[in-house]
Design a protein that fits this description.
heterodimer; A: 107 residues; alpha+beta; Arc Repressor Mutant, subunit A; B: 141 residues; Alpha-D-Glucose-1,6-Bisphosphate, Chain A, domain 4; seven-stranded antiparallel β-sheet; 27% helix; 38% strand
Chain lengths: 107, 141
């Protein structure tokens, strides 16, 4: 598993981080201050969560004077999509093999 | 019918097979039969039993799946932990007798390298929360 996928799954395993990412996905670019008002946790905690999301490539930051604006990078979800597509194909193939076996088995 | 929902909370494959549930149950729970359609294994039909599935290594995967039997309801439901490549998931098989055979449903659920104590809660938390991500993911594929 590539390191980027591990960072992605780790980032998404936390409900607060998922909530931040979902808010940025739906609401567009936000400052840490606005995100903190909505997150129900302290600003340092929000900043730490944003750091983990940034490491996973899920958010991008942009400095504007004293403010830092964060935006969602949904294309970073691709390893998750790839993983699910891979398992979908894997299981369809195994279903075929299971049926072949059942046809060969005695009742 | 075969269905795999690539962008939803889990991978689901479902198919009606013209065989009785008892026979399909044997294929799902007897080691040599499991090997014939899935992988080499040391499966035992005992709740709490840890076992592994092994196949040829491939890129990003050493070919080993670490498993543990979670649910065993003969001829109806079989569930096991399925940990591979640092991804912890749960695979659940459900057999339902239908006219002309059995509906075989496989659902693979859960993401993320959570630790064991948090695993079940985190997996279900993920299941609840991924719904909001679906729209985002749907835009990618």
């Amino acid at each position: 598993m590539p390191a980027t996928a591990n960072a992605l799954f780790t980032a998404l395993a936390d409900p607060t981080r998922r909530a931040i990412f979902e808010r940025l996905s739906r609401g567009g670019e936000q400052t840490v201050r606005v995100l903190t008002e909505q997150a129900g946790v302290s600003q340092p905690a929000v900043s730490k969560h944003l750091g983990v999301l940034k490491l996973a490539g899920l958010v991008r930051d942009r400095r504007d004077g004293r403010q830092t604006h964060y935006s969602a990078q949904p294309q970073a979800l691709k390893p998750l999509v790839d993983w699910m597509a891979l398992y979908g194909a894997f299981w369809r193939d195994r279903f075929d093999q299971l049926e072949d076996l059942l046809n060969r088995m005695d009742q | 019918m075969t269905e795999a929902t690539a962008a939803s909370r889990s991978v689901v494959v479902e198919r009606v097979m013209p065989h009785p549930p008892e026979k399909i149950w044997r294929a799902l729970t007897q080691g040599p039969l499991i090997e014939a359609w899935l992988m080499k294994n040391d499966f035992q039909p005992v709740v709490g039993r840890r076992f592994s599935l092994r196949t040829e290594p491939m890129p990003h995967w050493d070919g080993v799946v670490d498993c543990e039997v979670l649910v065993l309801e003969p001829h109806q439901r079989l569930s096991y932990r399925w940990d591979a490549s640092g991804l912890q998931t749960v695979v659940t098989w459900t057999l339902t007798a239908v006219e002309g055979g059995t509906r075989v449903r496989m659902e693979q659920l859960g993401f993320g390298p959570q630790d064991d104590n948090n695993y079940k809660g985190a997996a279900y938390g993920w299941q609840r929360n991924i719904g909001a991500l679906e729209k985002v993911v749907a835009g990618l594929i």
